[in-house]
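Summary for the steering committee. One of the milestones for this cycle was to obtain a three-dimensional model of the protein with zinc ion bound, which we needed before selecting residues for the alanine scan. The sequence and ligand used are listed below.
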Amino acid sequence: MEGGTNTSWSFQKLLKLRREAHTVISSGATSIREIWEAIRVKGNKVHWHNLIWFPLHIPKHIMIVWMTFLDRLPTKNRLQHMRIANDELCVLCKEARETRNHLFIECPPADSLWKAILLLSGLKRPSLTWDNMITWACNSWKGESLLTTVLKIAWSALIYSLWEERNARLFKGNSRSAAQILSAIKDIVVLTFTMGKTDLDRDKMKQLVDSCKAVGA
Ligand SMILES: [Zn+2]
């Protein structure tokens, strides 16, 4: 019977969550990093860990980006596979199925915003698939140069902002234009550098802040 299968599935999920919650509570973890250490499967680091754990990364972004990389966000596509929802249409473009890869890479607004961020950073690159984006970021964004740090923070802010925008449209009926989202991302990058402690060259930081402000942030 369908109801019985779903009930059993839900019960199993709750049991698993209870075990994970107990692990976190009994470990005394209070920060996101401590919670991550408590619940993660101990083993080799994932190859993209440098895109998650780096100086200046905003804690509330870490959780969303981490879940995005693991494809654990409740996208419509995942909810349909769990038989929780039937609607799969992307709320940002209303043209394709809302999967992780679509929402954060393939969706036209996501693609345009990322290209705009790259242009602000003096880069121009073709559209990439999710896997190719991860490969490029892992291979190219190394060290703690200004450009590397800006790209890491900006891509993380883009993922967070797209998920925030998706939820605002879906649950509150509110929406922002691409220009407004880009402006918010630029504010995040500037604030992160001006508020955070960094060893980056102060003149270069000032140049970054001035250039972001000059582009109509
Ligand atoms: Zn879309």
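Key point for the committee: The pocket of zinc ion is lined by residues 90, 92-93, 96, 102, 107 (CB under 6 Å).
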